[in-house]
Amino acid sequence: MTDDSVPDHDPGAREFLVVAHTGRENVIETIEAIARRCAAADVALRVVDHDTLDRDAPDHDVLYRNNEGDSPRPPNVPVDPEYLRSLGAVVEVTTAESASAEGCELVIVLGGDGTFLRAAELAYPAEVPVLGINLGHIGFLAEAEAHRVDEVMNQLIARDYRIEPRMTLDIAIVDPTDPDPPTACSWALNEVAVLNTSNNGVLELVTEVDGRPVSAFGADGVLVSTPTGSTAYAFSAGGPVMWPDLEAILVVPNNAHALFARPMVTSPRSRIAVEVDKNGRSALALCDGRRALDVPAGARVEVVRSERSVRWIRIDSDPFADRLVTKFALPVTGWRGRQA
């Protein structure tokens, strides 16, 4: 399912939000390239204050040598709005909140999968599309690698891209004795992990699909994942890899103390519930590894497909099968394919 339409913005009012991983060595050069391209195309930049320079830091005036000679740039701080402005870019600094991406044409993510999920928190409520440029190790969520930044920026500025919706999950913590309203709610692009908060023993859980019990077991927890998240935590827990354009919900027990607790792939229209034994331990529902919800003993974690998607920018990158082989270094020696 693909939405090929690109929003028709006023060319004089274009703005890109950049979210950066501050610990990557090549992030400074990458964001410089973005700033130069945007300045030349009259595209404004918006950066998050979390990623910006503390102007009072004592090492602010340390000199760096680049291709144009020495210039004052602070070490280990990737986003210096003043320096980017000196390159000709129009730069606005915003706070990291739900309205941060409103009015932007798109969000550019510089980093790995963790940075992408942080950026998705800003793009999701504003329904702004996201593109990842990988500066990390695996970077499964990224659409391009850092060495392609000039090519990528040419395509973004020319609006030579398409937008693909990726399904997300709505998560609710419910008290069965008083279910309306839920005690807490959130969402997830990758997965919600229902986890044991104790280092001792296991969580006693019952999984439910569409109002019917399916399996009871003790475990470290259980993961409810989207196809996008099937290559993340769910993959590490033994779940199958699902192609991201598939529409389904994946349920994966995490270190289950049971013979027949196996992953399940359910309909995208299913309502999944995980009940925590009322006589056992409490749990934690962790959404994309970032948003934590308390799950008291006896409570339920209810999960359904969200009506809202994360809008994913595609720039005709490698097929998903090639990405699997590359990111996980899968052995394909001996493959010949169809012979002419």
UniProtKB/TrEMBL annotation:
It comes from the Bacteria. Its EC number is 2.7.1.23. It is an enzyme of class 2 (transferase). Its cofactor is a divalent metal cation. The active site is at D113. Keywords: ATP-binding, Cytoplasm, Kinase, NAD, NADP, Nucleotide-binding, Transferase. NAD(+) binds at D113, G114, R118, N190, E191, D220, T231, A232, Y233, A234, F235, S236. One of its GO terms (cellular component) is cytoplasm. NCBIfam families: PRK03372.1. This is NAD kinase. It catalyses: NAD(+) + ATP = ADP + NADP(+) + H(+). Belongs to the NAD kinase family. Involved in the regulation of the intracellular balance of NAD and NADP, and is a key enzyme in the biosynthesis of NADP. Catalyzes specifically the phosphorylation on 2'-hydroxyl of the adenosine moiety of NAD to yield NADP. SUPFAM superfamilies: NAD kinase/diacylglycerol kinase-like. Residues 56-71 have a biased composition (Basic and acidic residues). It is found in: Cytoplasm. It holds the Pfam family NAD_kinase_C. One of its GO terms (molecular function) is NAD binding. It comes from Gordonia terrae. GO terms for biological process: NAD+ metabolic process; NADP+ biosynthetic process.
